[in-house]
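Hello K.,

You asked for the raw outputs rather than the summary table, so here they are, unedited. I folded two proteins back to back in the same session to keep the settings identical. This is the first:
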Amino acid sequence: MTDEKENTAETTTNEAEVSKTGKSGLMKYIIIGGAAFVLVIGVAIAAMMFLGPDESHNDEPEQQATQHDKSNTERPDGQLSADDDGEHDEPPAFYDDDEFMTDADDPGVLEDITDNLAFLDYRPDAEVAMAEEETEGMSVEDSMDAARWLEGEKAALAERENDLAARERELKLLDKKVSQKLLTLDQAETSRVNSLAKLYDGMDARSVAALMANLDDATVVSILPRMKTKNASEVLALFPPKRGAKLSKQMITIAEK
């Protein structure tokens, strides 16, 4: 009876040691598999963002690993299951990760992942350059529009200057014509005054003085200097002293001018 108890205790101890050894080896591969799984998941997430893979395929390794861990934690008394007997060195989850890694190593998948990562790292330098070119193009167009506007303004100013110059020439021509007409009128008036002075020279001094009494001072002053000196002095002597003095002063002023 005692031997049976000792054998039973020894068997239990051996089973416990085997269980501990199996669990330590299993944890080792689980850690390695988990690290590989994290790496694969990182690459897969980048691919999923653009390729849209089936989520169920990515969740299978995690579900299998979870089920495997759950089966290990639910075994009573630390005993190994029938599936773990002699095969606990490499867990099924690790094999699934290898299969996923094999798919990830496919040239097409790697090329897609590389293209997607390149797209993530893309900087719109070309777009910025195109925008700058468009901006420069617009600036050039604006400059051309401004240049055309300035040319138009210059042309308008030149036209206005030409109009003003033409009007100035017209005004000068008109002024010349007016001056000529005034000169003609002045000459005609002078001619008439000279004729009137000659007429008064042939009249009696008293008669001339009586006529000039009804004329304004400017007309009298324009006629007397054109008369003969003797006749003009006789007529001037017949004027009242105040008017005679006033007419004499005006004739002196005209002579000075």
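The second followed immediately with the same parameters:
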Amino acid sequence: MSFPLVFEDLVPLFKISGTGTVFESPEYGASTIIEHDQKWGVIFEWTQTGPLGWILCGTWNLNVYLEKMGPGEKDLPNQKDVAFIQGSNVSYKEIIEFPAGIVEDGVYRLVTTITFTGPKGNPGPVVCFGDAGLIQFYTAEN
């Protein structure tokens, strides 16, 4: 299931748009219902446009968060840093993948973030979130 990545960019002449996709093992494609014994992850795809893309530099920081419906949240070992590529029309495709069994059975809200940090690690003027909605993790009976 694909979902929009919502960017707030406070830099004139620099625009970003993109989507995220939750998947259960790449060979099974997009999914909102994930079997406990399958690898899963999120594909981030975004494009930056505009002339200021030639002078900005830094790093994109990608994260995935799960909030369990009912009590509890799930911490995931997931931050991925992606080098900013200078240019006026640059597309990115990055994947954060998780091993099978890392999430307990249940229903979770999945949210992603992309933030921009400058060369010294300071937060930049571009942030993003994506709300994938509800995701079900389950264990199948054999």
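The mean pLDDT is 90.

Happy to rerun anything if the numbers look odd on your end.

Regards,
P.
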